[in-house]
Amino acid sequence: MRTTQTFMISFFIRKKKNKPEEALLYARISVNGIYIEMSLKRSLEVSRWNQSACKLNGSSMESQQLNKKIDDTKALLYRAYDSLQKEDQVITASAVKSRYLGIDKKHYTLTQLLDYHSTKMKGVLKYGTLKNYTTTETYLKNYLREKRNISDLYLRQIDYQFTLGFE
């Protein structure tokens, strides 16, 4: 099956207005000719930038680190594009950027989940069962506050260690 969709990632620099010898590094994500840019929040010397290779010239530690950052960013952007394709999502430049930045999905916390469960089950469950859930909720919140020194936790942060500690 042929695809007519184009996807491209390029890196470029923009000179700083107050310091023309320095520049900021940017990535441009392009899907079907529509692009979006994002800053990589890295500063570099303009004279060391190789535009054709989209890399920093030289073998200094700074050059190696910045070139690694470029390679890592490119790999993560391609991974974001691939995951959108696998999920059969509409692929746009802003969708790829959002997936790369991790802001395309809503991340819920444990407290949000407990509140949601309490409101949905209030009229469904019998008093005794609801009381057991409320007690467990209190134990969970106390565990977070006393043992972990936090007030809330994202669900994706719950792991085996958390479960053992709470148990």
Provide mean pLDDT, rounded.
Answer: 89
* Unreliable runs: none
What is the SS-derived class?
alpha+beta
How many domains? The number is: 2
Which strand-content bin applies to the residues? 15-25%
- Cross-sheet strand order for the largest sheet: 1-2-3
Shape summary: elongated
Cα-based radius of gyration, to the nearest Å = 24 Å
Please name the defining characteristics of this protein.
167 residues, alpha+beta, 2 domains, 3-stranded antiparallel sheet, two-stranded antiparallel sheet, 5 helices
Explain what the structure shows.
- The chain is of the alpha+beta class and 167 residues long.
- The protein folds into 2 domains: 95 residues, no CATH class; 57 residues, no CATH class.
- 44% of the residues lie in helices and 21% in strands.
- The strands form 2 sheets. Strands 1-2-3 form a 3-stranded antiparallel sheet.
- Strand 1 and strand 2 form a beta hairpin.
- The chain is elongated, with a radius of gyration of 24 Å.
Task: Give a short summary of the structure.
This protein has 167 residues and is α+β, with helices and mostly antiparallel strands.
